[in-house]
User: What shape does this take?
Amino acid sequence: MTRDIIGLEVLLRWHHPTRGMVPPAQFIPIADKNGFIHELGDWVLRTACQQAAGWENPLKIVVNVAPGQPRQCQPRGTGA
Assistant: This one.
């Protein structure tokens, strides 16, 4: 009712230097097939958490990850 933003969804996009924007529907299956999906997911989670930790107003973030890769962002000062 207040229209306050309380959270954000993290969306992964790839801007290739010669192909332009490559949609996730093209690169996610390739990363999964080649065993790179967990490394990619780790990078996305780490980057999203680092950016969110620097925000003045804390917001919840939502990140879709591959099965078997659940993680949780820890607030600053928790030793994470």
User: Anything to note?
Assistant: The longest strand covers residues 7-9. Strands lie at 7-9, 14-16, 20-22, 60-62. Helices lie at 24-33, 37-53. The chain has two helices and four strands.
